Amino acid sequence: MSTLGLLRNSRRVLTGLCGRPNTFFGINLVSVRSIIDLSYSTHFMDFKGSSIPSSMKKLVVTKLSQHFRDAVTLQTVPVPTPGDSDLLIRNRYVGINASDINYSAGRYDPTVKPPFDAGFEGIGEVVGLGLSASSRYTVGDKVAYFGDGAFAEYTVVPVKKALPVPAVKPEYLTLLVSGATAHVALQRLGDLAKGETVLVTAAAGGTGQFAVQFAKMAGCHVVGTCSSDEKAGFLKTIGCDRPINYKSEDLAATLRKEYPRGIDVVYESVGGSTFDSAVNNLAVKGRLIVIGFISGYQTATGLTPVKAGTLPAKLLQKSASVRGFFLPHFTADYRESLRSMMQLFAEGRLVCEVDAGDIDPEGRFVGLESVYRAVDYMYAGKNVGKVVVEVAPHVDSKL
Ligand SMILES: NC(=O)c1ccc[n+]([C@@H]2O[C@H](COP(=O)([O-])OP(=O)(O)OC[C@H]3O[C@@H](n4cnc5c(N)ncnc54)[C@H](OP(=O)(O)O)[C@@H]3O)[C@@H](O)[C@H]2O)c1
């Protein structure tokens, strides 16, 4: 393949993985402009004979803000038409991610100005498709995808971003971002060895639950942080050896006391003082993987201060390292990682815990309107497992 061909191909793969991850916190990734060919698509959609309405609801970022409710507006728009190599998917479930507010704050690509569509991942049925897309998919196929514009009743998804799934279950949705992040990060950057001690922060959440299980599968002793006894109980059920409820136990003191040799690998999602405690308790040759820093996302900068001044000395003293991980940089590993996790799930060896808000005082997250509540629920630290919103109940297509 020519250099140009390779370049085009790598761009396609990256957008295929994450929609519009052009930059993150101002760091340039790739610039993508999609060209949609509408010439054949109407042959494969039958608005009259099917249950596809002419208009739909979707969530649009209309103003940049880390406060999701201020940034995002629910709009009624025409149902989009798929291009030649696209699928039109009726979303049944969409996934909530901590970074939905980084996205609405414009931290992924500061050059993209509102309005733009919100939501990273969905699962549902194909209800329309373009001619080229019809060589691989047909109406009624069940698919999941990791791409932009998922917070909508219908989303146009390029075939290259779609993943066939055996059923439209929210459990499959948990794997697209949350599961894949834990799987690839630990495999590529963890260098896990049997008998090592692994600390997972935000361990009972969307991605934390998978990090716990994959570290356990690697034969490690797993410590997990969380904010309630209920979450600690859940962590025990998925193999966490030592859940730490940081609201009732001091994290730094507990690590110092119970793990005097230090922690070999940290899967760190919280930032701020949690990051500092993890650094201070690294073992010799320890590896801390920066997965996120959720404690800062609701601030204007998106960051929580850490004790960066002393970091080089602390790392040197222990020959330790801090490694960053961002899923869209690992396109080559993505599909294989999903295949492997789906196999583990099918064999009953992987728990994909879903939280659809059943304990929320206003009830289960059903309908796009409840995405706002679901984001608040996550940021209140209430979720056990992956937060999902049921967009619409199942509809039998007449196509
Ligand atoms: N690098 C990547 O490619 C990538 C991909 C996916 C996710 N992530 C990161 O992984 C982390 C978790 O994301 P997720 O979508 O899976 O969310 P999640 O873990 O399902 O939910 C967030 C959890 O974070 C914990 N938390 C700790 N301190 C918090 C604070 N100050 N404010 C709010 N929550 C706090 C809460 O649980 P407890 O307090 O009970 O522990 C809360 O339930 C985030 O940092 C996210 O950016 C990174």
UniProtKB/TrEMBL annotation:
Q: Which family does it belong to?
A: Belongs to the zinc-containing alcohol dehydrogenase family. Quinone oxidoreductase subfamily.
Q: Name the source organism.
A: Chanos chanos (Milkfish)
Q: What is this protein called?
A: 15-oxoprostaglandin 13-reductase
Q: Where is the Enoyl reductase (ER) domain?
A: 67-389
GO MF, one term, reads: zinc ion binding
Which EC number(s) are documented for this chain? Answer: 1.3.1.48
Keywords assigned by UniProt? Oxidoreductase
Which PANTHER family does the UniProt entry name for this protein? PROSTAGLANDIN REDUCTASE 3, SHORT-CHAIN DEHYDROGENASE/REDUCTASE
SUPFAM superfamilies from the UniProt entry:
GroES-like, NAD(P)-binding Rossmann-fold domains
User: Which Gene Ontology CC terms are recorded?
Assistant: mitochondrion
**What's the short name of a Pfam family annotated to this entry?**
ADH_N
